Amino acid sequence: MINYEEQRKNMVKRQLKARDITDENVLKAMSEVPREKFVSKSLANRAYDDSSLPIGSSQTISQPYMVALMIQVLQPKEDDIILDIGTVSGYAAAVASRIVKKVYSVEKIKSLAQKATDTINELGYDNIRIRHADGTDGWPEHAPYDGIMAAAATTDVPNALKDQLDTGASLVIPVDSERGFQRLKLYHKKEDGSFEISELHPVRFVPLVSSTD
User: Fold this and answer.
1) Which of 77, 99, 176, 186 reaches 20 to 30 Å from 21, CA-CA?
2) The pLDDT of residue 205
3) Catalytic residue selected from 31, 40, 62, 105
């Protein structure tokens, strides 16, 4: 019998605290959300590996550290409403939901959106809504957002996401360079509507595409 609770504790200690994850709310959420529920049964024994894992449809569940980092840089607060682009397994949305008031998540692949919804419902996380739609359009009905995180890479950040971000809030997203490298970037929206951009971490994500199935 695998002791997943012990594995979660070790993941938080060795993969997160040992790096640069210091936000206590993020660490607490990562220690609570059962990542094994978001992967296939055949990979459950690897749920707390320091790596991404395949979940079907040519998609992956992100490395625990990357999920924690993306949420931490948004500096989430209890009353925040967060937009999550690229639900995939639903894991990142689940972690964020343990910290903030509401998470709206958009997934372009219908089967993944449904599977994530089923997992979220099974866990009883009732402050997450998942929508099967084009992530490049965001989810305008619930804007402005106190933070946006995207688990897919782009060369040009969609204007819809920038527009749906509240003043003083941040968007974290992987961005492709002209040389084919990806880097996680943070776009902080200033009072005049312009953005202060910070480069955070080299990454490798699937592309953000404007389509649904």
Assistant:
1) 176
2) 86
3) 62
198 token code pair: 């910070």
Mind listing the pLDDT tens digit for each residue in 68-97? 999 999 999 999 999 999 999 999 999 999
Written in H, E and C, the secondary structure of 56-120 is ECCEEECCHHHHHHHHHHCCCCCCCEEEEECCCCCHHHHHHHCCCCEEEEEECCHHHHHHHHHHH
Closest of 157, 16, 176, 148 to residue 86, by C-alpha: 148
Nearest 5°: the CA angle 104, 35, 72 is 55
d(CA 109, CA 114): 9
In this structure, the strands spanning 102-107 and 128-132 are parallel
* Residues linked to residue 175 through DSSP beta bridges, in sequence order: 154, 183
User: How far is 93 from 95, CA to CA, in rounded Å?
Assistant: 6
140 exposure class (CB count in 10 Å sphere: 0-12, 13-18, 19+): exposed
Distance CA 207, CA 183 (A): 13
Closest to 145 in 3D by CA, of 185, 172, 124: 172
pTM: 0.95
Q: Alpha-carbon distance 38 to 43, whole Å?
A: 10
62 a catalytic residue: yes
